[in-house]
Batch of 4 targets.
Target 1
Amino acid sequence: MKDFLQSLNKAFDNRIRLGIMSALMANESMDFKTLKSLLDITDGNLASHIKALEKEEFIEVQKSFIGRKPHTSYKATKAGSTAFQEHINALEQLINHQLKQ
Amino acid sequence: MEKDYRKDISEIRSMMERSSRFISLSGLSGVMAGFYALIAAFIAFRIAYTFETIEYQDVLIRNVRGKKFELVLIALSTLALATVTGAILTKKKARKHDMPSWDNNAKKLVINLLIPLLAGGVIVVIFYQYGLIRLIAPMTLVFYGLGLINASHYTYRDIRLLGISEVLLGLLACIFTGYGLLFWSIGFGLLHIIYGAAMYFKYER
């Protein structure tokens, strides 16, 4: 039991960060506005969780211009994808363990 | 440590699902498109058909050729009306749920719908040139169905079932040629109303 818990990633302990990461795994990239409406949270709340994931280098920011408007979108890094996969594997093992008990 | 990790799994699943599909598509726009199609089919019937000619292909084909501008005009106005209504209703639904009404998934949806649809459009024109008029209505149904199946990866899965129904109906229409308008009314009218209403009650109520 303990081993499984250790392999869970602290960064994904929070459900919003888990949500951001899930969306970025399913899509090549996503912008701030879309993430915000999907998660139904405030700008500040989303920004702080994004910053946390950025600090872990699990996601990266892509700045570009659409016409003259600056456009910010986010993308999962390779390290982020791997960490997320490992996290899911750990979750799976943990649930299997819970079900056996 | 008694946290329920199953909730984490369902959050992951829901986010992956919702983020990769365009879910602002309104079921009501399907219902409206269906009604427009039925009205258009009725007008087309009054223009090109008479009750004596429904069995007689030669007369029918001559009628279709003679009235082609009127018929194409009806078809295009129906398409335009259905598209505009769909866009307005979808925008309304998106605003209600504070979702973007035009995003990457919507773009992919439209492009993937258009690829088979444009191919079908070209084939229909070629068939017309060769005088294969009886295969035009069946072909539009088949290619529209293929377009829907293609587009269904980026929106509700129900659209896939609608697409399969349209393809089957189109193939059936290939066998029973001469009833093109009837099959058209079922495919673009009835099926849209049924599926649109089902989606409305499933997702918007």
Target 2
Amino acid sequence: MRTLKTSEAAAVLNVSPNTLRAWERRFGYPKPQRTAGKHRLYTHGEVAALRDALQEGLSISSAISRARESLSSDTSTLVGALQAFELDRADAAMEAALALRSVERSVEEVLLPSIREIGERHGFDSAPWAFAARWATDWLQRAQRMAPPPMRPAAVLVGDATRDDLDPDALALKALQLFAVRSGARVLVLPISGVAGLNEVLGAFAPQVVVIAGAYASDDDVARWAYRVRAASGALPMALFRRGSRSDAARTTARNLPESSGEAHRIVLDILDSRPRGVAAPAEEHINQPDDSRQVKAS
Amino acid sequence: MIDRPRLVALPGHGDRRPDVQFCGHCGRPPAEADIQPASRVCTRCGLGLMVSAPPEAAPSPHDPFLLVDGQLSICGVSRRAEELLLVDETEAVNSHIGDLLVPADAEIAGPESLVNLIVHAARGAGETHHVVLRPAKEFGIRFWARIAPCGPPRAALVVLADGR
């Protein structure tokens, strides 16, 4: 994917860098990524689509609307391919998306919305949904295999509280996992249901942040798992991702992450970056122990 | 004297003043010392594209106005119109003009109807027309509006005024 610095993108559009930043604030487009040094990086595809649309537009808003439309054609192509059960065409649609966007944005703006649309059209217990979800899982795993090796001293433990691979939250979890791996973190996903032998695994993995993802497992199961994690790894920052109505604020002070995998990933990175090395997080950032919750219930 | 065909200016066309340019957001004319003449983006506010219209129809920077295409879709809402109509351009773009403004006199039909005037103006045809409009969801408020061709691309310019 070709990217442009702010000055380059401004030159392509024949506007000043300040104008480009003003468009980002007012219209949310073009939407740059950030480099490690927090500099803006624009995807060439987005900028080129806007340049073409500006020539035919009456206002910046209408031009941006048209540019967005031209980019969203990837989503309809992917939905069409998956509804026709054509895996090669689905792969090609993602290739086309990757030509215009980063992997993260291709997943967030094309893959996940397309799969969700199929689920909403056919039902999340239908065969077309299963077909599409399996393909998406496979695609995310392939993308993860191509990710660079871990570069940053960050280890994320994910407690998988989803039902199975066909749980709609499972895809969001896999996307979050991919983003974290691509940002150089080590990621370990363990099922909430498995607590036997957890000490040994965590002793070797040494997580720095814990994310509990999915709304299928009960609060009791999650609390039991979180208690074991705490016993094995000490006080760690904990966050909830897509726990839905189960994330009961009265019983936990763990941080709730946004629904979007990309936004959740950014917050997880912030938690990792803000965590002083060698200093344990305050104990109140943790889910209550299961014994506590039982006491509350019993009373 | 040789009597042969020759080109003559049609009455009225020779006197017609050239179109004037204004920004579709702030309504101001292009800056004289425009350093980027190849761009249609307004160098004053950076949030609008330069559009041309006949001088008698072009808005002043204080006039609220809208740009509407031949499919009656709103393509632009000026900053003043955003304030007047309490809409954001980003939300209004691509919606039907009827969602925002309707004729104050609903009984006007035929060539004088709002739809016809906008469609004709968006084709680049016709002169400036004056109509009375009201917000689609409010009664008791009226705007004196002028509708004229503008572009590029071809569209209808709807300039709102309070009638004073």
Target 3
Amino acid sequence: MKRTLPLAIVIILGFLFVGYVFVPHKISQDFYDWYMEWMKAMSPFGVILGIMSITMTHTARIQHKVPNWQYSFVTLIAMIFTAFAGFAWGTQEGTPYMWLFKNVQMPMGATMFSLLAFYIASASYKAFRARSAEATVLLIAAIVVMLGQVPVGVSMFGEGINDLTQWILNVPNLASKRGIALGVGLGMVATSLRILLGIERTYLGGGE
Amino acid sequence: MFEIISNWVAAFLTLCIFSFLYKDNPFYKFAEYLFVGVTAGYTIPLTWEQAFIPYVYRPLFLQHNFILIIPAIIGIFYIFTFSRKLNWLSRYPIAFGMGTVGMGVPLSMHASVLVQMHGAMIPIENINTLLVFIGTVTILLYFYFSKAHTGTYGKVVKIGIWYMMIGFGASFGYTVMARISLLIGRIQFLVADVLHIIK
Amino acid sequence: MNIFERLQKLDRRWIFLVVAIAIILPLIFPFNSKTYTTEPTEKLYRLIDSYAPGPNEKPVEKDRAVLLCFTHDASTMPELFPMEIAILRHCFERKIKVFTITFIASAAPIMDYAINTVKEEFPEVKSGENYVNFGFKLGALQLPIILGMGEDIAEAVDIDAEGRKVSSLPIMKNIKNYNEMNLVMDFSGSSAGGAWITYARSKYGANVGVGVTAVMAADEYPYIQTGQITGMLAGLKGAAEYEKLVDVFAANPDPNKKEFSRELLKDPKWDNAITDKGIAYKFKQARIGMNAQSVAHIMIIVFILIGNIGYFITKYKQKQQQ
């Protein structure tokens, strides 16, 4: 009941979906429409999980007075206020909710990622060493591609650098990525098949 | 005026995040925790408006399609993830969602494996196609770990390693470009939209 | 400690400062530079351009359309937003029917912002006739909508971002499914059109183009070679290339020069866009960014070379001492 029934649901639905891919009959389409209607009704509740997780984590931090616990108030107040703004004043353009998204969430999200530029420069200086022949080849390929992408590289070395970059991307890079993609594709098919046949059950979680 | 204040708020928060580059400080911590809170709060009204109202409330209460009470209840079972006793109930919505894995098997097999294999089986007309063929085969041999990579087999597999190093070098070159682009975007915002130095 | 040992132990905050200066200066002092277009971008441009109505055709009756799928959040906007703007500008200039959709909540405002930014320059473009924003659809609905559009787009999407029934809109004349809406452009920082290739292309033969961050670009070449991906815009460079193509052809004031031609592309006057006040800043953002990119790349290469020279000299000295 606790593990068997969910497993049975996955296996039965899985095989029905395999049938859906190959069977063009109306009954197959009706099954698909039924499944999607039920998924649409089920999916909004997944968000509750995330909200509960954040709330529980930060209230626990405040209760146990862990280091920097005061900042958890910032998170909880921001979450409550943003949600309240969305419900009270709507989510259209020009509302406080959209203002928060455009001037708080968007800039900070973009800035978090932009920090990586500094770290990649620091890593290039401190860690990128031609310790072996393979590492040297990697380094040379990286430098050629970096020069080929920018106008300055082409001005310094002529259009040949652009052609060399395209050759690297279309020949050795293509072969490399194809080999890796085939491996990943086969892995994905194998994992999907294991889930379909009920061999892989990690999605059910631990416990009885 | 309002737009100017909005831009300055965004600029202040941007600089709070950048201050981490010097060292961790209260401004950065404040911005980090604020970001998590606003991101979480943002999804709640959006999910309510775009998912709950059209796909749960309207069909159930306005269109009287009462069968949908079953998936709604199954969806509510998600919250039992946090309960020690009733944790097993949360497996039901997950299991229902996992059903589409059956569709993934033939379609991924087609898109990720068969089409790629078909693309790899091209006539060897020139040096480039020969190099692509050799590279693809040697890399696939490299990933076959059931045989030890020694002797002649090891030498053949070494060619695959060289190909992968060139591929990773190309990826690194592109990664540098990507990361720098993200920083350029933020600096463009500060320089153009906030300080109006360029327009 | 000699200079090389000191350089090896340099505090990384000095490196951060050099990076910041290397990027700020080219943005404050913009200069013109040549943008070289590559085959994946040109291929995509030509495909989208082929959807333009003929001289005797009404745009609303054309039986071709493009779908732009925004699959990213604000963190990857610097690379993807300029390409979205460039493609929307191309579509509005050439009166190509364009739809926009997203399955990520945080991309919905980005989509609105992109459409409004370009629409400012095209007051004659109308929602429901020249373009439609399908809006945000829940992630769980991605698969049903992708598959549903293979049969009937209006039925799969149902309502647009403004709450209108898609089937009632004038733009849907002669547009039923992927046979007519024949190109899907997926702008993404991670999935790179995966779902569209697996489901829309495999089952319905839809063309799939991708606008990806540069991180993903190298991984997509096998899919370009097999034809699963029709064309690709790779990062800020891809955006800069497309901006140039739109300037040279779609936005060309001469109506006889709107068709793609390699001869026209070689004209050096098109490389003065950055200092040309006639082109709005929003339509040359990527090209301005590429100047800073150039300086940053040279800086990174210099860092790599200095780091390695220092490493080898230090290693040689250590060997000698032993």
Target 4
Amino acid sequence: MFGRILIANRGEIALRILRACRQMGIGAVVAYSEADRDSRAVQMADEAICVGPAEARRSYLSVASILSAAVVTGCDAVHPGYGFLSEDDTFAEMTRAHGLTFIGPPPEVLERFASKAGTRQLLGRQGLPTIPGSDGMLRDDDHALAEAGRIGYPVLIKPSAGGGGRGMRLVRSTRELQQALTICRSEARAAFGDDSLYLEKWLDENRHVEVQVIVDRYGNGVHVGERDCSVQRRHQKVVEEAPTPALDLVRRAELADSAVRAVVGAGYENVGTLEFLVDSKGEAYFIEINCRIQVEHPVTEMLSGIDLVVEQIRIAAGEPLGYSQADIALRGHAIEFRINAEDVEHDFRPQAGPVHAFVQPGGPGVRMDTHLYAGYEVPPYYDSLLGKLIVWGPDRPTAIDRARVALGELVVDGLKTNIPFHRALIEDATFLEGRFTTNLLDRVGSAAFLAAAAGVKT
Amino acid sequence: MPDDSRRTALDSEAAQRELTRVAEDVLPALIARFGAASLGELEVRHGDWRVRLRRGGAGGSAGEASGVNHAAGGSGASRAREPRDRRSGDAARRSEGDGAHADRSMVTSPAVGYFQPAEGLEVGRSFRTGDVLGHVDVLGIRHDVVAPADGVLGRILVESAEAVEYGQEIARVDRPPTRSGPS
């Protein structure tokens, strides 16, 4: 096992990893940027090291700074969290070259799954149904038009190097496709340094269902059920829950079994997530794999009792899984609400500034993963995630009741947050009936959705 | 003995006692409060005495003094103590402006790595803005440590081959003595 781990991330996930290290008796060093000097992870850490200025490119995304920090503090492993360098195979490779372990899939595994189109082909060969899409990367406009015609509109233009919904564009006609291609290419080049694009069939009414897997380096793999992330705003997840209300027990088990079989067959290693789109008939299509811990991992932890961050560390250290599918029992229902610093009344504009008061909810089945504290100043440089409220109940209605109480207790005073959105969501009939689809919010408009919810309440 | 000189002697004795009292009791309390507050400058008058504390700029100040003490204590301390010590120093510097390079009275580290002073670097050596005073070794690649201002090298806070973090104070820049005496 590792002696000391460098945590190369910030915010709530840095804290989450720090807690896992403590629990395992492993030393932890928090790497931070100048903008995060007063963050809770830095305050709580046994040791913290400033790796650069606020600008992520020169701190959290700087391979040299992060690795040098790990070396000078005597770490033997690096946990990248999510985002930043978490799925960067070059970073993983360099981590190894400096005699350190990357906590995640080994570099050659990351490389194998780096291309989204390549991964779809790879896992398609392992028996996973994939969403109809272009045959590889788009060579030019003519190729794009021909492929879109074959797949059938509407189609989604996706950057190969993208992630988290960034850089995607939906087009419904040949004309829209022609106009969008140039923009998408330059956006992808600017954002990811890679302008390769591919097409995917767009299912107008779909749900986002993802399967959590854990695979050790000896080929033992399990799934830890699925999560439904259909409440999305502009392709960004806002609320996640498990189990999915979209599929029955048998379909859920089939999907999860096929996912874990495919990734074990394809040589995956460590904790990962396979994302699927599920259409209105309940057909699931594989879209992509996330080779990292995910923001919404607590949902699965609440159902299974498995600590996914601990599992990442154990597997990266070479330990065998030590249990099988039959040992995993998923109980009850869990829902996670992402608490973001956003002004819901002004197009969810990101907010920054001081937090004057913070009151964390409690009670049975309530978990809050956050780096907030009263007096903390939210810096403007990074994403707007302030924390996650996770509720668990023996069934979905109980979980929703507990969510209502918890969201009522939660106070973040000083800057605007999306808590009002969540309070409205859990009164919404579509959500209560478990019929949310990924494009619902964008179709009706988040503002209209909020207004309608407010109207219902009064 | 003329009266005048006795009075002066008595006065200077009283003044000496008063100076000791100020130095031992008043100043430390003042510095502590000043360190905790986000003030740029603080002036206290008491009888004939006037004490002024100023953060940053040329010469010593309360904020920096606390940073220096912490950093100096950290070099011999256990590893677990080091980061907290670094942070205390940083906190003082941070209230001053944004980022590592705002304070021109400190030579700071440009990167995370191991510090190596330039050949012959010693206290009292004068330099110009931009002069290379040493380097930080980042995974085998040298990053220059440069002088933030013209000056004379004051205290060196980091030993050769010691690990430094980004923005860590490496040495103090003293101004060449142009004008003497406090205001």
